[in-house]
Amino acid sequence: NSLSSSHQPGTHHSPIHILHPSATTPINYKMSETLSHANTTTTTTTTAHSFIPKCTAKWFWSPSRNTFTPYDVNKNCLIESHYQKVLANSSISPIVSISLGNFAYTIDVRKFTQKNAQSRKTRRIRRVLVKWFIAGVEVSDPHTLKALADAHQDTSIATAVVEYNAHKYDFYIDEMVMYPQVDHHEHTNNDSSQNATLLPDLDVEREEIILPDDQPERVTVLKMTEQMMDSPQDTLPHDASPQQLKAVLKDITAYVALNKHQCEQLTDDCPICLYSMNTGEHTVVQICGRDHFHLECLMQCFDKHNCFLRCPMCFKTYGIRRGTMPRGTMTIQVCPDVRCSGYNCGTIVIQYRFPNGVQRKEHPNPGENYHGTSRTAYLPDNSEGRYILKMFKIAWERRLLFTVGRSVTTGEDNSVIWNGVHHKTSTHGGFSNFAFPDDTYFARVQGELNDKGVSLQKDIVYDTSTRMDTVEDDDEEH
Q: What is the pTM of this model?
C-alpha cells in the first residue's frame, strides 16, 4: 500500500488544544493525558479500559514530593488489570504485588499507595487516563484505541496502520495525522478516477483534561489557635479619622471620583440612599468600573474593622473579610469506601471540634465562658467537593465558618454556632435532612462563601461524571 499523491506527510499539523480549569485560553500540546482517581472514573471509560488496560491508562509512582515516574509496560498492565478487577468487584483485595529491581512492593489500587515490603516505606501512586480523538470525535472502539496507543508507545516506528470506520489509514505518529490508504486495484477499475470516494486526512489528538491535582491528604488537620487569632491583620484603629477611612477605601477599591460635569450626566439615583447623584451636593465615586455611589453612602457599607467592602450592586469584594471563630481544629479525611447519596465516588469527611473557652473582645460577651461543640460534615470526593473544600479551608483560616452566639437548636447563648455557611451533616437523606442528594447545594454554598469574600477567582467546575443519574431530588429548594 502507498499514499495518495495528494496526501503527503508533513503538509500540515493540527495542535492539540487543552483547556485547564483555571485557564482562559487553550494551551497547545502535542500529546496529553487525563489525570484520574479510582473513585472518579466514569462508567463509559471503564468499559473501554477493561478491554485494553495498557492503552488507556498509565500508572506512576512518586519517588519524591510532586514528582512521578511511570511504571514499565508490563507492570503497568499488571496494575491496571488488577485495578479493573477491583473496580468490577469490590470484594476483591485491592493489593497486588510487584518487584522493582531487587525490591518487592505491594500496590494498593484503592488507596493509591506503593509500600516497600521490607522497609514498609509508603509512596503515592497515580493513575493517568488517556483519551484519543480522531477529527474531533472521541474514539471509543477498543481496537482503534489499542492501535493508536500501541503506535504511540513504540518509539522505534514512525508510522503504523490503523483501521478506523472500516477503512485503513497510515498513522504518522509525529505528525499526529492519519492519511487514508489508497487501494490501487480499485483505481484500475473503469471510471475509477471519477467514481472513487476520496477519504479526507484525519487529525489525531490525545487530550488532557486536568482534574484538580490538589486532592487532600488522607488526614489533614487545620488548627485555629489563640496565637493565630492574635496575629496582625489588616485592621484600622477604632478612632481612625474619616480621612484615614476614605484613604483606605480608595486604596483597596481604586475608586474614581466624578467631576461636576460627569455627575450631571448621571440619570440614576444612588443605589444605597436612593437620592439623586447629579446635584453636585455630594461626592460621587465609581467602583468596579461601572457602579456609582455617593462616597458617604459607600463608607457606610465599608467594614472598617476588617478593611473589607462588598459592592452593593455587583457584589465584587475588596479586601479580606475576617470573622470571630474561636479556637478549634478542622480535620479532613478522605474515605474511598463511603458514599454520599447520589454520587459514585468516595467522600471527604470534615470534623470540626471546638473546646469550651472564654470569649474574646470580638465576641458578644467578652470575658464570659462559651460552650464548645463538635460537628461533622461531608462532601463528595470529586471536583465539586474538592473545590468547595478549598473554599472551606480559606474560610477557616479567616475565621468565617463559626462564631459565638445563640444556638438555634438549644436556645442557649454563649455557644459555638454555624456562621451562615451551610454544610451537609449527613451523607443520606436529602435536602430536608441537611444531606445529599441536593442538586443545587454547590451553587448555594459557593454563593454563601462569596458573600463572605471567599473566592477562588474562577467558576466552579461541576463534575457530573460521579453523579448517579438514577437518583432524583424532589426536595424543595434550600
A: 0.48
